[in-house]
UniProtKB/TrEMBL annotation:
UniProt protein name: DNA repair protein RecN
Keyword annotations: ATP-binding, Coiled coil, DNA damage, DNA repair, Nucleotide-binding
GO MF, any single term: ATP binding
Coiled coil: 165-281
The keyword Glycosyltransferase appears for this protein: no
An individual GO BP term: DNA recombination
Function, in words: May be involved in recombinational repair of damaged DNA.
């Protein structure tokens, strides 16, 4: 329920703070006084588009706040899903800055407009004389029928299953596209894979071959230098080993005079052993080094193949080529086995489709049972508000070929006529604006009996009615207000007299500037306002008596 609405700097409103009551709240006032402006401001905290050109003062930001009592509305899960703090009195706030940028908050937590709108739709249902097109929409007609059929639990399960079905169907479509593409590319992938497989690549092969090629290319230079090194160490007339032996003999002669020289002599002997070992390894390498033209050509051919493959596939190493080979292998395997995946998924989809069709048929049967209940309720209600010959027909048609959507297997049309002897037809073809308003009121009254509408707002839904019919429309409003908060804007005194609370919207001029204002009327002020609605600005005694009679004050 809407406890309070605060509006600052919007249209003709500088600042308003309105506290609403339970039951039926009435708003009256002259045309253009600002009643619709209040609804426009309320729409901003329900997620509607904002424009800075509607500011009262173009130098200040606009702020709208709605204070809602949501205890018992079972909205805890919504708050949890959107990471919001749940409060029994929840505040929706909208701020629009001078540059037109908008910010929205729920209990001081910033939210986007989608979340604000989703929450707002669960708090308030606004119905205006221009919103009757909703009644002609198939989704709305199904909503009414499902409420009457008590299909909520069945639909919840059905929609969950339908969502799963659609996801699998999308996955199947993607698999089929992948299969077609894979099969189209199969020959090309196979050729690439065969080429890499035949190359029999090894991960570190390139580096090893490049090193060996470098050795073969410089074999003569390597052999000459190794031969010279070997001679210097051990083979020349004066060589390193010989010189070290001579040094060791000289030092050994002195050991008897200086014992510490023995350690140095041991190091010389160790050096001789190390030099001889190095010399031996150099000799072996020298003997094994030779230019092998056949090997040289073979390595060049192998490296040219590797370089060619790397260039072709735009990579720089054998490791990447091997990785590509594995990818191609996977693609080929997928192409071979994807048909099995498609068949398996298709079987799953077929099973889910059978379940969905059965669930949709159960929902459809309940809708058929509910259809005459809707027809009878609406016709009785319309008869009570001045349309005794009106008829409503809920035309349900099961789709052929087992086609279904997120709502089931039914197509639905509300067919209507307001006059006896005239053919039933679609609403937009036969119903006037006033007739649609009364029809919508009847349907909203039906919905209210089947589900919780926290707050419902009627914007001049009584257009086109008067006299006794207006009384009866007011009675329906009173009945609605027994189960929920109702706020209605009206120009009819019969309607205005039904309210638990009566607010008067008016304009006043201060310092050459026009303001919209609102005030809650006292009992005596209500009598005066309703008397004016009955007979004009200067009501006579009979108008006052009539007003008191409407308010049941006699």
């Amino acid at each position: 329920m809407l406890n309070r609405l605060y509006i600052k700097n919007y249209a003709l409103i500088d600042s308003l703070d309105i506290s609403f009551d339970k039951g039926l709240n009435i708003l009256t006032g002259e045309t253009g006084a600002g009643k619709s402006i209040i609804l426009g401001a309320l729409g901003l905290i329900l997620g509607q588009r904002a424009e800075s050109k509607y500011f009262f003062n173009q130098q200040k930001k606009c702020v709208i706040e709605g204070f809602f009592n949501i205890e018992g509305y079972q909205l805890n899960s919504f708050f949890e899903e959107n990471d919001l703090d749940f409060e029994k009195e929840t505040v929706l706030r909208r701020e629009i800055s001078l540059d037109g940028k908008s910010r929205a908050f729920v209990n001081d937590t910033p939210v986007n407009l989608t979340v604000l709108k989703q929450l707002g739709e669960q708090l308030i249902d606004i119905h205006s004389q221009h919103a009757t097109l909703e009644i002609g929409a198939q989704n709305f007609q199904l909503l009414v029928t499902d409420l009457m059929a008590a299909n909520q639990d069945l639909l919840k399960v059905y929609k969950t299953n339908f969502k799963s079905y659609k996801k699998k169907q999308e996955k199947l479509d993607e698999l089929i596209r992948s299969s077609e593409q894979a099969k189209a590319d199969l020959d090309y992938f196979q050729f690439q894979f065969n080429e890499l497989e035949q190359a029999n690549l090894l991960e570190n092969e390139q580096e090893t071959l490049e090193s060996e090629l470098n050795t073969l290319t410089h074999a003569e230079e390597i052999k000459n230098n190794l031969t010279n090194a070997y001679a210097v160490l051990e083979q020349s007339e004066i060589n390193a080993v010989q010189l070290l032996k001579e040094a060791s003999s000289q030092v050994q002669l002195l050991e008897k005079y200086q014992p510490e020289l023995a350690e140095l002599n041991e190091r010389l002997k160790s050096s001789i052993i190390e030099i001889r070992d190095i010399s031996s390894e150099i000799y072996n390498i020298d003997q094994s080094t030779a230019f092998n033209e056949e090997r040289f050509v073979g390595i060049n051919d192998r490296l040219n193949l590797i370089y060619s493959l790397q260039k072709k596939h735009r990579v720089s190493s054998n490791a990447e080529l091997i990785s590509l080979q594995k990818e191609l292998s996977d693609k080929l395997n997928n192409a071979l086995f994807i048909d099995e995946d498609i068949l398996s998924l298709q079987n799953e989809i077929d099973k889910e489709k059978s379940i969905l069709i059965q669930q949709a048929q159960d929902i459809s049967e309940r809708r058929k049972e509910a259809a005459p209940l809707i027809e009878n309720f609406v016709q009785e209600t319309l008869a009570n508000i001045g349309m005794p010959d009106a008829q409503l027909k809920v035309d349900l048609q099961v789709r052929s070929n087992q086609t279904f959507d997120g709502h089931g297997i039914d197509n639905i049309k509300f067919l209507f006529t307001a006059n006896k002897g005239h053919q039933l037809n679609e609403l937009h073809k036969v119903a006037s604006g006033g007739e649609l308003s009364r029809l919508m009121l009847s349907i909203k009254s039906l919905i209210a009996k089947k589900t919780a509408l926290p707050t419902i707002i009627f914007d001049e839904i009584d257009t086109g009615v008067s006299g006794e019919v207006a009384h009866k429309v007011g009675n329906i409003m009173e009945q609605l207000a027994q189960n929920m908060q109702v706020i209605t804007i009206t120009h009819l005194p019969q309607m205005a007299s039904k309210g638990n609370s009566h607010f008067f919207v008016y304009k006043e001029v201060k310092d050459g500037l026009t303001y919209s204002q609102i005030k809650r009327l006292s009992q005596s002020e209500r009598v005066t306002e309703i008397a004016k609605m009955l007979s004009g600005e200067n009501p006579g005694e009979s108008a006052f008596l009539n007003a008191k009679e409407l308010l049941k004050l006699n």
